Amino acid sequence: MQDAIARLEPEKREVLLLRDAEGLSAKEVSEVVGIGVPAVKSRLHRARSELRALIAPEASRPPSTCPDIRETFSRYLEGELPDDLCATMQEQVASCPLCAAECDGLKAALNVCSTMPSASCQREIDEAVRKVLATELQQ
Questions:
Q1: CB 72 within 8 Å of CB 29
Q2: Fewer beta carbons under 10 A from the terminal one: N or C of the chain?
């Protein structure tokens, strides 16, 4: 998992670690990183999807007729999924074994990410937090 995370672009790795490993909210991540919440969520969606692909590149992606489970699940985690779409996606996952496998893989990856020791990338996170604190203290 740490090798896969290390292979992400630094901007994506940073938001992924702050949000999913450190448990910061999207707003808190935006303050640390210095970008807007929509940009944080966009980077986070891409980082989660890339992380899933890096962890299990051999995993079958659902057919193109299926919705993008990676993006939708990430949006669900961020509270961005309307109730009707959430219900539709639950039905899709229940009826499509490939979508269910994709969803289970994402859950497993994020579970590992949230429980792993973050020391491998802690230096980057510490530096980002120091910059924000320095800026705040100067004001």
A1: no
A2: C
CATH number, domain at 114? 1.10.10.10
pLDDT tens across 69-100, in order? 878 888 888 888 888 888 888 898 899 888 88
User: Which residue shows structure tokens 């949000």?
Assistant: 19
Q: How far is CA 90 from CA 27, 52, 120, in A?
A: 27, 20, 35
Domain count, the chain: 1
- Residue 100 sits in which domain range? 2-138
Q: Taking the mean position of all CA atoms in its chain, how far away is CA 57?
A: 17
Contacts (Cβ under 8 Å, ≥6 apart) of 83:
none
CB 16 within 8 A of CB 8: yes
Segment 27-55 shows an average pLDDT of 90
Query: Which amino acid belongs to residue 136?
Result: E
The pair of three-digit structure tokens given for residue 91, joined into one six-digit string: 């039905």
Length of the chain: 139
